[in-house]
Design a protein that fits this description.
elongated
Length: 93
Amino acid sequence: MTRCFVLDELVALLTAVRDEPIPTGDADGATAVVGLPPTPRLRVAAAHARRPFRRPDPGDDVANPLEGSGVTPEATFARLERSVAALASLLLD
């Protein structure tokens, strides 16, 4: 079992936990309660549980500006800043 996440993968999974209902399997088609669990630890566990329902996205990787990717250091910093802000909001709000 993989216990680490790529930054934008975790943001996407937590967003899905927050926004997308999960079918309960009931005959009447009921869905589980949508929303983030109360603690950061439980939120990460819920994100991990969502992994089988999300295809890996190559866009989750942050390009290294020092490896000739064509991405500037400023663009990389801006992306990391947005991703970390989104993660902090999803984990702590």
